[in-house]
């Protein structure tokens, strides 16, 4: 038996030579392939979509450098840091309860309250979802009776003796994102019926704002008479930042009227040739004609949340609202080709306004620092196929804009997110207080797509332009890249929001460390005995404080910091969507019955 097996295993000289040649070929092929150096499965980075990549893909670009040499994220007690943020929230909210409630906001220096958002207690409403995420049940329980008693009536306006008081209006945009968003999010997190009842009642009282020819909400509405303000000209952010709240409210109440109000806004935005003409929605609108009144393009305070809600409406509705997705992709691609610039000599990537097209202002607002987080969220949650859309409208093309058509759009979105987040953080790092200014003006800047073309023509050596900004001491020039136009720090959340989303989408712990540095600066520079206050000047340590503590500081800034430091995932990005005031709403899908009832195609 053994002899028979041995005989069958004998190999002829011809077969032996063939086997050696085959082994040599396979061995050589392995060692010249990407597999030999552990690159298997790594993404190809920034290769033109119309050009086949070379056999060996680029390695992913390195993450941002840690701010502290020898820093080890794993050795840090991140849950302990989350508890410090919780204590900061309690300090601020207890100060509000003691000195200001039931007024809207706390004056953290004079220790009294002010009614500046309808007089319904906006800080309490805006803080509900933060309380629930932080498991502050006592504070939440104390707030419920006050919410139950609130009737959303208009406060009497004051007037000089002998004159009739002016009509009172609730500002629609702020009321929706702070009050309505706060109620709906708290209901989703707690399932307290009274919260949904009050949300439904408030939305009904705000309905008069939509009684315009094209359904675009007016700036203000009287919640008792239903009359809306006479102001016909408004900004994009104020007419197109309520779709999340009204869509979710329609879902949980089953009321068609709430859905129709959101759908009418989207219908007006989609009509005609507006997006084709500009590539994105202009900032100024006439609510009576349903048309833009200028060609100004921006992602700053006049437009920010409107762009944000295009992506988030798609995500909130279980990725079913494909029209909203198309609007978002077109808008984001236009931003990348039209509004992004790179400074000199530090290479800071920034987003600015253009008006008239194509003249850039080179102004960079703190409010615009929501954008890197939005771009990262889109790149993280959307499939590659979602980005397969034509490049922006020809009317706004520079000759260099076609350059972006050579790249993978999804990767460009993530590169822009990283570069902008770096710049937003550097605005903080550059200041002696460790807190960023409200607005800067860049001295020199070149269009990002032009810098990308130069980088590609150099053989893509080094990281793409605008992705890794240099610190001030790393450049020889003594001339700064930007001048500060507004020294104030208004406790704004946008940079913290993007830092949180960069951490969630990349997993790079350097973003957590940066968030911690900002939190320590807040503690050092803005804390008062009763709360936290805005700064007048970020360029001088321990500068004069401004006697205000906006409700968004508790709703957004402290919430995002708390979630950034938690090791568990309290708000998974595939199951929740944050409204523009950081109130998380749960992702849902329309049932067949709802689609038929609401007329959803």
From TrEMBL:
Keywords, alphabetical: Glycosidase, Hydrolase
Domain of life, per lineage: Eukaryota
Protein name per the record: Seven-hairpin glycosidase
Originating species: Irpex rosettiformis
UniProt lineage: Eukaryota, Fungi, Dikarya, Basidiomycota, Agaricomycotina
């Amino acid at each position: 038996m053994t002899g028979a097996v041995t005989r069958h295993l004998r190999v002829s000289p011809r077969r032996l030579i063939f086997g050696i040649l085959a082994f040599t070929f396979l061995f050589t092929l392995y060692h010249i392939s990407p597999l030999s150096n552990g690159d298997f499965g790594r993404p190809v980075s920034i290769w033109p979509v119309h050009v086949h990549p070379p056999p060996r893909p680029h390695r992913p670009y390195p993450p941002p450098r840690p701010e502290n040499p020898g820093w080890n994220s794993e050795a840090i007690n991140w849950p302990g840091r989350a508890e410090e943020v919780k204590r900061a929230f309690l300090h601020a909210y207890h100060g509000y309860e003691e000195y200001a409630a039931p007024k809207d906001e706390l004056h953290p220096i004079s220790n009294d309250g002010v009614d500046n958002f309808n007089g319904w207690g906006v800080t309490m409403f805006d803080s509900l979802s933060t309380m629930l995420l932080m498991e502050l049940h006592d504070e939440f329980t104390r707030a419920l009776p006050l919410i139950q008693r609130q009737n959303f009536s208009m406060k009497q306006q004051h007037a000089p003796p002998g004159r009739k008081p002016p009509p009172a209006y609730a500002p629609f945009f702020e009321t929706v994102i702070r009050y309505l968003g706060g109620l709906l999010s708290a209901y989703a997190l707690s399932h307290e019926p009274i919260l949904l009842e009050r949300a439904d009642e408030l939305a009904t009282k705000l309905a008069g704002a939509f009684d315009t020819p094209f359904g675009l909400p007016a700036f203000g509405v009287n919640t008792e008479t239903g009359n809306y303000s006479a102001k016909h000209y408004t900004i994009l952010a104020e007419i197109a930042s309520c779709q999340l709240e009204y869509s979710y409210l329609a879902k949980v109440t089953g009321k068609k009227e709430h859905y129709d109000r959101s759908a009418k806004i989207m219908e007006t935005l989609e009509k005609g040739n507006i997006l084709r003409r500009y590539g994105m929605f202009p900032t100024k609108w006439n609510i009576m004609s349903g048309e833009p009144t200028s060609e100004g393009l921006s992602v700053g305070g006049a437009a920010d949340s409107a762009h944000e809600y295009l992506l988030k409406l798609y995500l909130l509705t279980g990725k079913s609202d494909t029209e909203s997705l198309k609007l978002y992709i077109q808008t984001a691609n236009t931003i990348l080709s039209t509004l992004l610039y790179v400074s000199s000599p530090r290479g800071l990537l920034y987003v600015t306004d253009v008006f008239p097209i194509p003249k850039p202002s080179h102004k960079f607002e703190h409010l615009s620092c929501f954008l890197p987080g939005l771009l990262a969220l889109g790149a993280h949650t959307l499939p590659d196929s979602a980005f397969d859309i034509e490049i922006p409208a020809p009317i706004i093309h520079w000759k260099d804009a076609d350059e972006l058509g050579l790249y993978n759009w999804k990767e460009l979105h993530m590169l822009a997110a990283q570069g902008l987040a770096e710049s937003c953080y550097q605005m903080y790092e550059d200041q002696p207080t460790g807190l960023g200014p409200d607005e800067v003006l860049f001295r020199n800047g070149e269009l990002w797509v032009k810098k990308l073309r130069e980088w590609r023509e150099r053989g893509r050596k080094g990281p793409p332009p605008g992705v890794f900004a240099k610190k001030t001491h790393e450049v020889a020039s003594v001339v700064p890249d930007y001048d500060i136009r507004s020294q104030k720090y208004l406790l704004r959340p946008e940079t913290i929001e993007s830092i949180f989303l960069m951490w969630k989408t990349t997993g790079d712990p350097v973003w957590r460390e940066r968030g911690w540095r900002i939190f320590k600066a807040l503690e050092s520079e803005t804390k008062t005995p009763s709360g936290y206050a805005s700064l007048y000047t970020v360029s001088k340590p321990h500068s004069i404080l401004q006697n205000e503590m906006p409700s968004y500081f508790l709703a957004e800034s402290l919430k995002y910091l708390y979630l950034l430091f938690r090791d568990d995932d309290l708000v998974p990005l595939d199951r929740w969507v944050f409204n523009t005031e950081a109130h998380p709403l749960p992702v849902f899908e329309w049932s067949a019955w709802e689609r038929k009832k609401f007329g959803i195609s």
